[in-house]
Amino acid sequence: MRHHTRARWGAPLSIVVGLAALAVGVLLIVAALPVQTIAVITGVGIALLGIAALVVPVDVEAPADSGPDSGPGSASASGSGDPGAAEAPRATRRTLLRGAVAAASVAIGAVIALWPDAGAPWLAFLVGAGLIVHGVTSAVRAIRGSADQRVAALIGAAATIIVGVVTFSWPVLTLVVFRLSVGAWFVFFGLQLLVTTLVRWRRHRAALRHGDGTASTGAPTDRASADHTPADRAPHRGRLARWARTAGAAVSLVLAVLLAYGSGSILGGVPLPAPGAFYTAPAEVPDSPGQLIRSEPLTTGVPAGARAWKILYTTTHPDGSPAISSGTVIAPSEGAAGSAPLPLLTVAHGTTGVEPKCAPSMSATPFADGAGTALADMVTKHGWVAVISDYIGLGTAGPHPYLIGDAEARNVLDASRAVQRFDEISTTTDTVVWGHSQGGQGALWTGQVAESYAPELSVLGIAAFAPAADLYGLAEADKNDAPGKTVSAYIASTWNDIFPELELESQLTPGSAGGVERIEQLCFNGKDALSAILTGTQIPNQVFPDEVLDGPFGTTLKAQTPTGPFPAPVMVAQGLADPLVKPQLQHDWVEARCEAGVPIDYRTFPGLSHNTLVDADSPLTPEIVSWTLDRWNGSAPTPNCTDLPK
């Protein structure tokens, strides 16, 4: 009766579980899923496995007393007259173990599905750990195994362990591969469960028709004869076969080593030297900001027709305390400069990283950032001097005030102040301010605070190219994108020191802390930029949870939005194919400034991305030069608030 009841309810439940497993597998294979959704679906699948273990009937073996050796004269292995007595405790233990494993699967699957932010990193970890454990187990078996297979097995085990270690560097990629393989397994499991259930149901129906009350198990199997493989039937392993196995294992090991080396090279970035003695603060530092401490000629990456220097000067930390910053100055060659004060261009540079080694003045291309071609034209063709602040923490001691608008602006203005005290050249106190990306936000803030912070300087114009104007909007819009995760990692690593009350380090999403620490050490210029972005792709979740974005941290992000008023005409340029600074966010910021009575000259460029917007061949390049010269010549500005481009 118990068997009849289990069969009656087991078959429908098995069909439901089989169909669900099939659906899980198809979703994992076919659908384009973010890692959190992969975790949810995989968690559901793991829970289904536990449910399957509970509800799917186990094939019932023939009772011990119905076998050919049982009967009144037979005895069990224990010597008792009941051959089933010894098997009963084992069956009970197997049932209990099966129930425990099933319950654990349901619990683990539910946790992963309900908390995917934690589940996704743990899934990636378990895949890597599973490969390593499998490799170690295979190595142990190989050592204990036959000599003719030992070498190949050990090489294969080493390859498996290396691949397992590499998976920790590529958790998201690991999850993608894991998704496909596990999806295929769920499809197979679902189909197998459906077919097995239908076969078992048909056998059960046939058994009921015959009136014996038990499910037919088909033709008897001589287990002893099936399991027994005489030594003379074992496959012959020749020398060629052994060499083939060893060669195949060796190839897999070489590929695994190359994979590990390539991963280390790509994700490790390019080793950069630490700042030298030039960037070290002297024993006595002037109290007031904008004082020139020292300068040094710069020859690396200087355009033809120009000369350049590194400078060290005083400025202030975000809290207003004294600080030291470095920067660069570029001017026309000595013969072209003349004796009159030269027009001054003040440049806020874009993201290059947050470590001292990431200073633009230490780069092989110190003047290539942002609109580098336009900058070179302004210096070599139009006779301007440009000064570029490294910002605190890049070159000098930090922390770097990454995307903290007011602090960046003070660093930028103090660089222009320091140039006024530079004996090598003479510049005007009138200036035009430029900036791209992070520097775009910095340029807008520079214009916003210039009159109150550095009244001796006169800002004639502010040009911002793809500025990170709406920092909170960007954090929300880019939180699941690789560039957004990279920027978030830089914010997390610097703001944790500047705003300790936010306690950002302890509020990152599960599984993101390791990626944040790695990105912090990578610069965002040259080859390191690729390493930083690729590392960002391997952070499984957004860096900051939504509840953190909605709290005091979000309020601090919003406080970095430059709102004006601005003391001079403002031009904002935006590429409409920008994946980082979203065009709609930029349009909304410009529109809000226009509605507040702040005139903006807003220019959009279809097909241009965040970086191609300021490339040498960008249509913006000559426009930057022309607009800047117009500001110097006092031409009327051209705001377009009444007809903003869509």
UniProtKB/TrEMBL annotation:
TM helices/strands, residue ranges: 12-32, 38-56, 96-116, 122-140, 152-170, 176-199, 243-262
Region of interest called Disordered, as start-end residue ranges on this chain: 65-88, 210-236
Source taxon at top rank: Bacteria
Bias-annotated ranges (Low complexity): 65-86
Compositional bias per record (Basic and acidic residues), positions renumbered to this chain: 224-235
InterPro entries attached to this UniProt entry: AB_hydrolase_fold, DUF308_memb, Lipase_secreted
One Pfam family hit: DUF308
Coiled coil residues, start to end: none
GO molecular function terms listed in the Swiss-Prot or TrEMBL record: hydrolase activity
Keyword annotations of the record: Hydrolase, Membrane, Transmembrane, Transmembrane helix
Cross-referenced PANTHER family: LIPASE 5, PTHR34853
Official protein name in the record: Alpha/beta hydrolase
Organism whose genome encodes this protein: Leucobacter rhizosphaerae
